Amino acid sequence: MGKSASKQFAEEVLKAHNDYRKKHGVPPLKICKKLNTGAQQYAEKLASTRVLQHSPESANGKCGENLAWASYDQPGNEVAERWYNEIKNYNFQNPGFSSGTGHFTAMVWKDTKKMGVGKASANDGSTFVVARYDPPGNVVNPGFYEKNVLPPKK
Fold first, then answer.
1. Does residue 8 fall inside a structural domain?
2. Are 143 and 111 in contact (CB under 8 A)?
3. Which run of H or of E encompasses 56?
4. What residues make up the domain containing 94?
5. What b/e string do you get for 87-117 counting C-beta neighbours within 10 Å, with b at 16 or more?
6. Is residue 94 domain-resident?
7. In the predicted model, what is the mean pLDDT of the chain?
8. What integer pLDDT is reported at residue 4 of this predicted model?
9. Which of 16, 98, 140, 148 could form a disulfide with 110 if both were Cys (CB 3.0 to 4.6 A apart)?
10. Sign of the dihedral defined by the CA atoms of residues 36, 40, 43, 45, in that order
11. Which residues form the SCP domain (predicted)?
């Protein structure tokens, strides 16, 4: 399989998340070894199947998950920026889940404490990145978006 998410890559993704989180006035995330391992294993699975789909763990609510695919070796800050840029489609006046903003809301979700990052290359040179979040964001209970997805500070 391709090379694993180097510590440096994971730290780059983490730093980008925390820079964005600071703009929204929410606490920084910490890297979690266990989440890293799970994210890495899943990135390798995606790279072998080359089908970008969410994991069973995220489907059953055990963790939050953001996925990214690119035809080249994507830098960590670029991956994070692509997810974060969904903010332009998020309506803070009408908060809630939408498939076009789920990556952004997972990143800045206030109650999330820890994250893990995995990256793997497929044999065609494309790369799959998996970020996992604990506790997971994007919880659709009433009032949760208002409490967890705060508008950026001016």
1. yes
2. no
3. helix 56-59
4. 1-148
5. beebeeeebeeeeebbbbbbbbbbebebbbb
6. yes
7. 94
8. 52
9. 148
10. negative
11. 8-141
